Amino acid sequence: MQKKLTLTVDERVYRGLHRRIGRGKISRFIEEVVRPYVVNEDLDAAYKEMSMEESREQEALEWSEGLIGDSSHEGRIART
């Protein structure tokens, strides 16, 4: 089921959408751009696809381990 949505955009954005995307195609364009940010199935699929890339997964692991190391020093209260 589709729902109608009214958006307000800057006039330059409006003209650019009509010029580049074309009249009658703007709704589909906006939906395709926004969908990954708001529909969980697409987001889950994107995360799964990203996890299949070994170099990206290794980089994410190193980044998260770095955060764990940083947090071990935070929140400590000096005792006197």
The Cα radius of gyration reads: 22 Å
Sheet of most strands: none
Helicity, as a percent range: 55-70%
Helix tally equals: 4
**Quantity of strands, as a count:** 0
Describe, in plain words, how this protein is organized in 3D.
The protein is mainly alpha-helical and 80 residues long. It has 2 domains: 38 residues; 33 residues. The protein has 4 helices and no strands. The N and C termini lie far apart (64 Å). The model has no long low-confidence stretch (mean pLDDT 81).
Which secondary structure elements does this structure contain, and how are they paired or packed?
Layout: H1 11-20, H2 26-38, H3 40-51, H4 54-71
Helix pairs in contact: 2-3
Provide a brief overview of the structure.
Helices cover 66% and strands 0% of the residues. It is mainly α and 80 residues long.
Task: Provide the descriptors you would attach to this structure in a database record.
80 residues; mainly alpha; 2 domains; 66% helix
